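Hi team, as promised in this morning's meeting, here are the two structures we talked about. I've kept the exact order from the run log so nobody has to guess. The first one is mostly here for context; it's the second one we should focus on when we meet again. Sequence first, then the predicted structure tokens.
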Amino acid sequence: MPEQPPEKNGFISMIFHDMKNPITAVIGSIDIVREGRLGAVNPEQAEFLQSAIESCQEVITMIDNLLDIKRFDSGRTQSSITSVNPCALLDTAVRHFSAAAERENVSLALTTQAKGCTTAVDSSILARVFENLIGNALKFVPEEGSITISCDSVERNKLSKTEIKAATDTPGGFPDAASFVRISFCDNGDETSPDDLARIFERYVEPDNASIRSRGGAGLSLAFCKKALESFGGCIWVENNEGGGSRFNILLPCHTNKTARNNSNGEKQS
């Protein structure tokens, strides 16, 4: 795809940024009705109103993904890097999607074994990575399906050969660290085709599956996840499960003094 002129990119970014304000106002108005502040609302009405809110939030997420990808491309991303426990962010993300998973009759479970491990990231960006991956998984799993998330810590010399090969083969390369936070998002949806596996982190790419395309999406969520994780010195890859479905795997360097470095904007990472 030919590169767009800088002025056109700036105009597109401005338009998308300005779209967030009215959508946010819509969310606020619907929420007022849903909470019954303008009159009684029965449970069925509240459920439909909540679905409308979540649909608006999906649009905002797509806008944020597009804007951040453009910032990553231009090197203008402003990050506030701190030492973060990813387990806490995962727990928040799972609670955020629990109602949507329940409506879809999907089991959403989290297992954490790295509660004392931290990594040097921007917490708001990493939280959005987790939300993108859960939202993406919800598109794939069938009714009564499952999404299982795990988080643990692992020393570099204890990674499996499969993990090392997958991490090394990613464009970002293998992170330089002695130990890692290892996070997996596993679903029991359809298998991903070899062609889709090779292109799944490219922008504007959605799996060649009619039932998934009908759920919407601009093919930006996974591209954003890849850009964000690589900016933190981490990596992400996907593989098919033996019993069906996909597994998205993340490695992020455990936080040490070595991981504290100046980012591209000159802000101190601690």
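And here is the second protein, the one for discussion:
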Amino acid sequence: MEKLLARSDAPDHIVIETSGLALPQPLVRAFNWPEISTRVTVDGVVTVVDGKAVAEGLFAHDPAAIDAQRKADEMLDHETPLSELYDDQIACADLIVVNKTDLLEQAEADQLVTRLREQARDGVQVVRSTMGRLPVDVLLGMNAGAETDMAGRAAPHHDSEEGEHDHDHDEFESFVVTRPEIDDPATWVAQLSDIIRRFDILRLKGFASVAGKPMRLTVQAVGPRVEHYFDRPFGMNEPRETRLVVIGEAGLDRAAIHAALTT
């Protein structure tokens, strides 16, 4: 199944959850309608995969039940095979969540994650979960603007026009890295993208102090895609430093990442 995370001008996020049988591209394209596009953007498309089923060569826990559901709902596409729906949802995703990883052996889960990364678009992150639970910082804030970036989201077979479970969040971690001012924003941002790829970082966000510039350089990274812009002047008593929050799956090499970000 896939989820669309929509962001408006307000700080609130609206989560739109669709059926696991839905073709994602038409729904994402709908956010280009004039009545919608001036007010809301698609923050990101999240595809949730049944890890146990896919590892067994299926696309759902009960394919027969899925087929019956499709036939009973006139609003759903009845012609597209389930395998093609799966391919469409993987191709359109900005984030892939492999659910039910607790039902897989470690080697089996690793193999599935590797395969999904190869199938997905470049830079799309693949994370693991149990019972579909993830920290909000992992799900929100992608700023993908998916409705304006549809060219690469088609699967190969399609034309391009087409509180109580907080312990589960121990599978993810975050930490803060500070460093002095930077000299060259363009070179530094390119280095960030390389570091994110090298250490498999999910998110990186914060701001930098640029030598000779009165304003902060804000940084937002989802996978290796790094957005940066000057947002506001530093306050009178605000330290001129660079401060970044690193978010990833548990087991990040904090020492190596800290060294890379502060070099």
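Starting points for discussion:
Residues 2-148 form a domain with the Rossmann fold fold (CATH 3.40.50.300).
The longest helix spans residues 185-199.
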